[in-house]
């Protein structure tokens, strides 16, 4: 989760330089004190600049709880909003207008009054193996027995322990630069596992020794995607950032986040996903693992996209799509609840009695 979040602050809310979003609206972007964070901030800022050429951007740094606690595994800290809380506090105080996150850092249930206004096109969601220089040319399969692999992710460790039983796995924390330094300058790790997206955004693709396919290691919910969080009531900001949405990424990440939320998962449990859209069909594979990877439940479901935005036979172009989706899900959820209580038996009996009349 080292990619880090960023926030936009209204002029007057601090000493930051300002940039014009629209008529008489001024803001500036903050980012965490890491190189990757700045790169991702600049990427989003450039997208906004291309859409709104009159915008002038000012960028200043900020840190979060997750950025400061670097000696403890994320799964043991117990804070669900490690990389978001301070930023959302600033949103709530109207000091900021929008926040850019790595989507995998965002809890699946946001605080009241906030919403994800944009999900940008996803970079590679897969995990990558970065080898110690002395192991150049090897893979996880060919590393010697007992080789130590660094990762702070329970999800990665659970899957890889099962797939590569000859290896050992050890926590490693720090931002991307720090973890690579720990790998290269010490003999503690034979390799480390990192998100391929971060390495690519840093321009360090040459450090990737192996990209892990879904059969070896499925990825984290939202991994590789950037999200823009805003106040739900700010319709002007919401409309502006909504132009950054990438439709396929949005669908994939909604499915992934819904899966994780239903499982009440997060950093403290090993949950993994893989999604794809092909021929207008959205496919979601999800799995849960025991910590040692020996127990696993895994399955795949598909859903066909609706090209005409129809929900249970209704096409309502003047009603927000998110409201229609919420209404449909509400009906399904209530049906599931009654079915679990024996509704099908009651309905079957009623049908039989009606047919006999």
Task: Briefly summarize what is shown.
Residues 251-314 form the Porphobilinogen deaminase C-terminal domain. The protein has 357 residues and is α+β, with helices and mostly antiparallel strands.
Explain what this protein looks like in three dimensions.
The structure is a single chain. The protein has 357 residues and is α+β, with helices and mostly antiparallel strands. Helices cover 32% and strands 23% of the residues. It has 2 domains: 19-124 and 221-355, Porphobilinogen deaminase, C-terminal domain (Double Stranded RNA Binding Domain, 2-Layer Sandwich), CATH 3.30.160.40; 127-218, D-Maltodextrin-Binding Protein, domain 2 (3-Layer(aba) Sandwich), CATH 3.40.190. The protein has helices at 35-51, 65-68, 74-77, 85-92, 154-163, 176-185, 196-201, 235-241, 247-262, 321-340, 343-356, and strands spanning 6-10, 19-22, 25-31, 59-61, 96-102, 114-119, 127-131, 148-150, 168-170, 191-195, 210-211, 226-231, 271-278, 281-289, 296-304. Strands 1, 2, 3, 4, 5, 6 and 12 form a 7-stranded mixed beta sheet that branches. It is globular and about 80 Å long. InterPro entries: HemC, Porphobilin_deaminase_cofac_BS, Porphobilin_deaminase_N, Porphobilinogen_deaminase_C, Porphobilinogen_deaminase_C_sf. Residues 35-238 form the Porphobilinogen deaminase N-terminal domain.
SSE blueprint and pairings:
Blueprint lengths: L5 E5 L8 E4 L2 E7 L3 H17 L7 E3 L3 H4 L5 H4 L7 H8 L3 E7 L11 E6 L7 E5 L16 E3 L3 H10 L4 E3 L5 H10 L5 E5 H6 L8 E2 L14 E6 L3 H7 L5 H16 L8 E8 L2 E9 L6 E9 L16 H20 L2 H14 L1
Parallel strand pairs: 3-4, 8-9, 8-10
Antiparallel strand pairs: 1-3, 1-5, 2-3, 5-12, 6-12, 7-10, 7-11, 13-14, 14-15
Family: Belongs to the HMBS family.
Pfam family, one: Porphobil_deamC
Pathway: Porphyrin-containing compound metabolism; protoporphyrin-IX biosynthesis; coproporphyrinogen-III from 5-aminolevulinate: step 2/4
